[in-house]
């Protein structure tokens, strides 16, 4: 038992070192969450559509996504800025806020253009926002992105709830009300492939407003963009639209809290690249995602991904396997950095163990020497002989590297054994 005690201590030290290293790794490099929540928008809208695509791609990586339908970008910004909301990622648009209002948020870049469509009844003739005074206008519900932008634009031409009738309808409901003559104008913030937009563009009873002042609007509102809707892009037989139409819109962004796990941020950047890099009716190949955001600071993780693409591990390993591989590499590097100076100190550490063992053996030998100075019974002599033999066996564990210490101990053991043999037990 005594001979193996230093080895046991060394083994325990190694186990403790490995355990503490793993705990430190888990603290400084925690595993990513297995479930995240994304704030999208009203069901059936572009935000909801892309949210579902993001969810499907996250699922392939083993991450469960909970989609939270909202009124739109305004509510999304509020939720993502609230650390107690449970929302990890929010889909918003330009002009909803900035870093001074939400300093804990970072952007993954601009992801897609969203036109602000203005449809009106074919019985009217409207080519300017100022002509909407006195009209019944569907501007979307409170807290929605479409209402936010519609009110900003209309305020520039003095159209407000006092000079017009604002109706809180959006999407399909707004188009249905316009088709039924219950309203005169409908503002819709959505992609070109949304059902409401597809139906409205094909409806002969509705017209799409051309923003003749689009260039001026984009200068007044730098977060807005000019979008060209070419003649015939919606269909060539019959030609739809019959003329080129100039629209205005916003560019969508994806925001995350700066505390979100880096692996999730990088995976989200990868998903955005896959979802928005292709050409479409409103964008060219490679136009999105853009690693810029005038409202919020860019995530450096996303910028690096857009610039350099996936890492070596991401190219050849599934998401979770690459996470474990990175953690293992980090653990090995950290362990090596700590173990290298430890192993360079190992010879002296081992020498200390050997000397400590010898000190304990010598303490036992001193007890024997002290006992030899008194009168001994036969039983006491037998006990001392057994103790010397036990010390002798324990000394065999001393390595050849410490042979000088070993032979010195053996010399003193032989002397004690000789003294014990020379003692005569008194006869009764």
- The shape, in one word, is rod-shaped
Question: Helices and strands: which structural class?
Answer: alpha/beta
Mean pLDDT: 83
Query: How many DSSP-defined strands?
Result: 12
Query: What's the CATH architecture name of the domain at 93-309?
Result: 3-Layer(aba) Sandwich
Walk me through this protein's architecture.
The chain is an alpha/beta fold and 428 residues long. Among the domains are: 93-309, D-Maltodextrin-Binding Protein, domain 2; 345-422. Helix content is 47%, strand content 16%. The chain is built from 14 helices and twelve strands. The protein has helices spanning 5-28, 46-60, 73-81, 145-156, 171-179, 195-202, 214-220, 262-276, 300-308, 312-316, 319-344, 346-371, 378-395, 403-422, and strands at residues 35-39, 64-68, 89-93, 105-121, 136-138, 165-167, 185-189, 206-208, 224-229, 235-236, 239-240, 245-257. Strands 1, 2, 3, 4, 5, 6, 7, 8, 9 and 12 form a ten-stranded mixed β-sheet that branches. The longest helix is centred in the last third of the chain and has 26 residues, at 319-344. It is rod-shaped and about 135 Å long. The chain starts with a helix and ends in a 6-residue tail after the last helix.
């Amino acid at each position: 038992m005594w001979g193996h005690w230093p080895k046991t201590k060394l083994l325990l030290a190694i186990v403790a070192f490995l355990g503490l290293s793993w705990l430190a790794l888990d603290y400084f490099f925690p595993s990513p969450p297995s479930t995240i929540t994304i704030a999208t928008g009203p069901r059936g809208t572009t935000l909801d559509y892309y949210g579902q695509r993001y969810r499907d791609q996250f699922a392939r990586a083993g991450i469960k996504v909970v989609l939270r339908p909202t009124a739109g970008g305004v509510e999304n910004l509020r939720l993502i800025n609230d650390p107690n909301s449970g929302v990890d990622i929010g889909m918003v648009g330009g002009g909803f806020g900035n870093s001074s209002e939400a300093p804990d948020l970072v952007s993954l870049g601009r992801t897609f253009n969203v036109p602000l469509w203005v449809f009106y009844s074919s019985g009217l003739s409207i080519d300017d926002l100022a002509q909407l005074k006195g009209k019944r206008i569907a501007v979307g519900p409170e807290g929605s992105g479409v209402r936010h932008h519609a009110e900003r634009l209309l305020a520039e031409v003095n159209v407000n709830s006092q000079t017009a009738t604002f109706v809180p309808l959006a999407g399909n409901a707004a188009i249905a009300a316009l088709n039924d003559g219950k309203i005169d104008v409908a503002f819709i913030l959505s992609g070109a492939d949304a059902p409401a937009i597809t139906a409205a563009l094909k409806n002969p009873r509705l017209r799409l407003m051309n923003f003749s002042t689009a260039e001026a609007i984009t200068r007044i509102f730098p977060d807005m963009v000019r979008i060209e809707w070419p003649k015939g892009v919606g269909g060539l037989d019959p030609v739809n639209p019959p003329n080129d139409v100039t629209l205005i819109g916003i560019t969508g962004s994806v925001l995350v809290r700066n505390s979100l796990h880096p692996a999730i941020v990088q995976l989200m950047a990868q998903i955005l690249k896959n979802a928005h890099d292709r050409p479409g009716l409103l964008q060219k190949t490679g136009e999105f995602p853009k690693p810029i955001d005038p409202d919020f600071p860019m995530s450096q993780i996303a910028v690096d991904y857009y610039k350099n693409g996936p890492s070596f591990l991401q190219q050849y390993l599934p998401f979770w396997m690459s996470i474990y591989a990175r953690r293992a590499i980090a653990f090995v590097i950290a362990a090596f950095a700590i173990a290298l100076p430890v192993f360079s100190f190992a010879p002296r550490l081992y020498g200390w163990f050997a000397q400590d063992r010898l000190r304990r053996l010598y303490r036992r030998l001193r007890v024997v020497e002290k006992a030899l100075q008194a009168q001994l019974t036969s039983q006491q002599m037998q006990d001392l002989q057994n103790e010397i033999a036990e010390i002798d066996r324990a000394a065999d564990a001393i390595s050849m590297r410490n042979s000088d210490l070993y032979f010195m101990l053996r010399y003193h053991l032989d002397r004690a054994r000789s003294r014990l043999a020379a003692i005569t037990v008194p006869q009764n």
